[in-house]
UniProtKB/TrEMBL annotation:
Signal peptide: none
Tree of life domain: Bacteria
Pfam families per the UniProt record, alphabetical: LprI (PF07007)
Protein name listed in UniProt: Lysozyme inhibitor LprI-like N-terminal domain-containing protein
Gene3D superfamilies the record matches: 1.20.1270.180
Organism: Gemmobacter aquatilis
Domain Lysozyme inhibitor LprI-like N-terminal: 2-94
InterPro entries: LprI-like_N
Length: 101
């Protein structure tokens, strides 16, 4: 139970970083859009669509990974660990996107 709690805390921390990274990346995309003619804008919208799709991917991928321990007490720990890992990777990608503007 303690290991599951720790894995959950890791995921919560990664998710907080992801939220900050997304806000920074979104602002970068809004800045790009602001410098384009109205009919060429879309960076912020594509980022939003990508993020929604990524969340669906993460949740499904981690549910699948959890099946290694399906029905057992370790299943939530595996899922939280997966979510923390993938969320951390996504946050890094978004920080890079935010810095590249």
């Amino acid at each position: 139970m303690e290991m599951t709690y720790c894995a959950e805390q890791d995921w919560i921390a990664a998710d907080a970083d992801l939220n900050d990274a997304y806000k920074a990346a979104r602002q970068a995309m809004l800045d790009i859009d602001a410098n384009l003619p109205q009919d060429q804008r879309g960076a912020a919208e594509y980022l939003k669509q990508a993020q929604r799709a990524w969340i669906d991917f993460r949740d499904a991928a981690c549910a699948a990974e959890g099946y290694q321990m399906h029905g057992g007490s370790a299943e939530p720990m595996v899922i939280y660990g997966c979510r923390a890992r993938l969320t951390g990777q996504r946050a890094q990608d978004l920080w890079v996107l935010a810095a590249s503007e």
